[in-house]
Amino acid sequence: AIGEVSVDVPEGKMKFLREQGYVNKELILGIRPEDFHDEPVFIDSSRGTKVDATIEVAELMGAETMLYSQVAGQEFVARVDSRTDIQPGQKLELALDMNKAHFFDQETEQRIRPVGEK
């Protein structure tokens, strides 16, 4: 969950979290800006991994636009194609690529890695 927003975690990610004892524990979720998507084809295929956001700042950076927003009080930045016309105050549905999500221990803030990964 992101605050009060729940997102589905792919089974492969859930498996390595369970194997390391992270069952019924709160974790920190990390998503890189490039792993948010506003493309309709991605949104339509992303059941359980979407968030509704109100854009606070849209910063055009040439070929891409950086979107600054919050979901359930958690600030985030999304990087989308600059051809998408987005204005501050606009509501936007974004899909998260949870296959690229990173998880961190709530207490130590260390990244939780699959066994054998460096």
Automatic annotation (TrEMBL):
Transport-associated OB type domain span: 29-104
Chain coiled-coil ranges: none
Gene3D superfamilies: 2.40.50.100, Nucleic acid-binding proteins (2.40.50.140)
A Pfam family annotated for this UniProt entry: TOBE_2
Top-level taxonomic group: Bacteria
Listed InterPro entries: ABC_transpr_MalK/UgpC-like (IPR047641), Mo/tungstate-bd_C_term_dom (IPR008995), NA-bd_OB-fold (IPR012340), Transp-assoc_OB_typ2 (IPR013611)
A single GO cellular-component term on record: ATP-binding cassette (ABC) transporter complex, substrate-binding subunit-containing
One GO MF term: ATP hydrolysis activity
The protein, known as: TOBE domain-containing protein
Annotated organism of origin: Metabacillus arenae
Higher taxonomy: Bacteria, Bacillati, Bacillota, Bacilli, Bacillales
